[in-house]
Design brief:
This protein is an alpha+beta fold and about 525 residues long. The chain has helices at about 5-10, 30-40, 45-50, 55-75, 80-85, 90-115, 125-160, 240-245, 265-275, 285-300, 310-320, 365-370, 380-395, 400-415, 425-435, 450, 460-470, 515-520, 525; strands at about 190-195, 205-215, 220-225, 305-310, 325-330, 330-335, 350-355, 355-360, 415-420, 440-445, 515. The protein has a domain at about 30-160. The protein is about 45% helix and about 10% strand. InterPro entries: LytR/CpsA/Psr_CW_biosynth, LytR_CpsA_psr.
Length: about 525
Amino acid sequence: MSRSRRAAGRRATPAAGRRVRRRGHRARTATRAIGLTLVSALVPGSGLVIGGRRKLGAVVLTISLGLLAAGAYFGLTQRDAIVALAVSPTRLLVVTTALVLLAAGWIWVVVASHKLLRPVSLSMTGRLAGSMVVGLLCFGIVVPTTVAAQTVMAQRDLVGSVFASEGNSKSATRPKVDKKDPWAGTPRLNLLLLGADDGDGRTGTRTDTVIVASIDTRTGDTALISLSRNWMRMPFPADSPLHTEYPDGYWDPKLGNVEQPEYYLDSMYDNVPKAHPGILGQTDNPGADVVKLAAGAALGLDIDYYLQVNLQGFESIIDALGGITVNINYKVPVGGDYGVGPGTNGHKLPSRYLQPGPDQKLNGPDALWFARGRYGLSDPSRQERQRCTIHALVNSVNPATLVTKYQQIAAAGKQLLRTDIPQEILPAFVELGLKVKGAKVSNVDLDKDKNFPNGRKPDYPAMRKLVRTAITPKSTTPPITPPTSPATPGTTKTPRLPQTSKPPKTSETPGTPQNLDDACAYQPAAGSS
């Protein structure tokens, strides 16, 4: 045998103990290679296995299936864990990093799989087609991952901007609770909702909207209690330093029993902290703490937290949600100013009116005027519309809107909200909010005709009894007839304001919660005049 033939034989025969590396399966055509690349993108790791990198492909395939199974498990069975993650800035940052790494790994798998699967010899057209498909696949991975990462970061920014941790915020009225189970000793959570009337052309901040939401922490059933903006003599708890300053309530006896706009409920947020700076101790929002104490004393409730809404930002969040749908029973003014009282810009007629009709879709500006419009209308009618606006807002939130417009909603939320709810108990709040969305929301009638025919001297003891009747289970509550307390006539008369229409009257017994589905229904006959 010649030397050349022996050398060839040695090259053909593998050395003893040396493993033969199996060749991968390369596609014979560019079309088949593209098809297998698509499969590798849908099932990461499969392309590596087919291309000969079996161990690496098995690892990638195992990780892919494991992530898919973990996502399904947590999504279907671990809602509490997901909620806790969604309101933790640190965890949200980890999620963002994980999304970026996942996208980078997925792109590498697609590119590596295509390189292993494509034929050795390819025409220029085949190479170009393969590169275009791989590019499109990578683009298809990058875009949704980027959107997801931006959404997570928007949520992180919202949580960090609106909800400070307990250690990084100060409140003179916030309760101490068990972070692991905040509602353990709280059968009802009382939340103060404030609508701040700050904006262009106005001096200071007045809380035009003051509503207390009393929420059953077990069922989510919620009672909404509206306080009138022109109430005087607002009380303070006996153990508060403000009670020493105003033992007979927030008013000036020297002025007599007349309308005192600078001592209305809506002026307390701005005026009391200015008159008594630091009286409540360290707090990030002294005005909100003042109103919390006064509203709680007036209604006989311990107010736990406040949620302050900037009414200008309210427009943005309504638009971000795609609008709200309400029933309009009577004409509601857009704009208009009586030209009297604090914050006025002079007498001005409404620019137009929101016309009556069922299921009216309102954008942000119109929704704001539906809630705020009062030219020619009474405060109780405006309070009812504000409750109906909250009801419509809760009902308008749906998963599809949240997914498609969440970044816009989060950006609006940063400008909209201010609160003393700490980050540490946000998971419990989100869980409670889910209960509220599916529970009964009702209105508590405080009986304007008997208890506050005007704002000069409201009968707060009678209103406290009505509230206690409304939020206590009826099986354990004896019927209570609230005492009447006629208002003391004033030495001056409040000017009679024009009525553009009559708001609907309800036949509910005072103190009996009225379901907002009924209160906010279309009732055109009741609103016509």
